[in-house]
């Protein structure tokens, strides 16, 4: 299972990439806009920070198929082969995914709310789909169930498309999708930092240190 950083903030990406075993970064137009920087400069800097071997996901903002394809090609040319183009699952987006598949460009179908959104995207040739767990739950849906059902459909259909569960507001939601067959999780830096925030760990480490220092080995060392 891959772990991605869901952020466009250089300092946050640097810290998480340095401290944790991550496989790449996902961005979206909202995250990019928050940074208030030139788009290409920012995504190239993210690429430099994480290195060329990790995955970098960049989203298009155009609405018509031709414009989405054009934008995707520009992003792809500006970066490298480990960039994946995120495209919302509109009808125009699905047509763009089909076209980009023919051109050998990797895509992630984003804004996935239902198993059938994911089915259509995978049929069109998307390499990844991103169910929006927290946003589904905000609509009184069950994010985890959507992930489970997508997994079942992909298994039944022998699709190789990977599920990147996205849109989290707490660690409980993340744990649930990990148990539900998600292939990848993309998580904001604040929540990745919470994975190891268990006060008992610190207390245990302190206790081990004190016990060691009291022992013969501790005195000799
Ligand atoms: C990632 O690919 C998505 O764009 C992101 O997780 C959405 O998260 P949000 O619902 O917290 O904005």
Map the helices and strands.
Layout: E1 2-6, H1 10-19, E2 24-26, H2 29-35, H3 39-50, E3 55-59, H4 65-78, E4 83-88, H5 91-102, E5 107-112, H6 115-124, E6 128-131, H7 133-138, H8 143-157, E7 162-165, H9 171-179, E8 184-187, H10 189-194, H11 199-214, H12 216-220
Parallel strand pairs: 1-2, 1-8, 2-3, 3-4, 4-5, 5-6, 6-7, 7-8
The protein binds erythose-4-phosphate.
Erythose-4-phosphate binds at residues 6, 26, 28, 110, 130, 132, 134-135, 166-167, 186.
- Strand order in the sheet with the most strands: 1-2-3-4-5-6-7-8
Largest sheet: 8 strands, parallel, barrel
Radius of gyration: 20 Å
**CATH A-level architecture:** Alpha-Beta Barrel
How would you portray this structure in words?
InterPro entries: Aldolase_TIM, TAL/FSA, Transaldolase_AS, TSA/FSA_arc/bac. Strands 1-2-3-4-5-6-7-8 form an 8-stranded parallel beta barrel, surrounded by 7 helices. The protein is 55% helix and 17% strand. The protein has one domain: Alpha-Beta Barrel (TIM Barrel). With 221 residues, the chain is of the alpha/beta class. Strand 5, helix 6 and strand 6 form a beta-alpha-beta unit. 38% of the residues are buried. Helix 6 (115-124) runs parallel beside helix 8. The chain binds erythose-4-phosphate. Erythose-4-phosphate binds at residues 6, 26, 28, 110, 130, 132, 134-135, 166-167, 186.
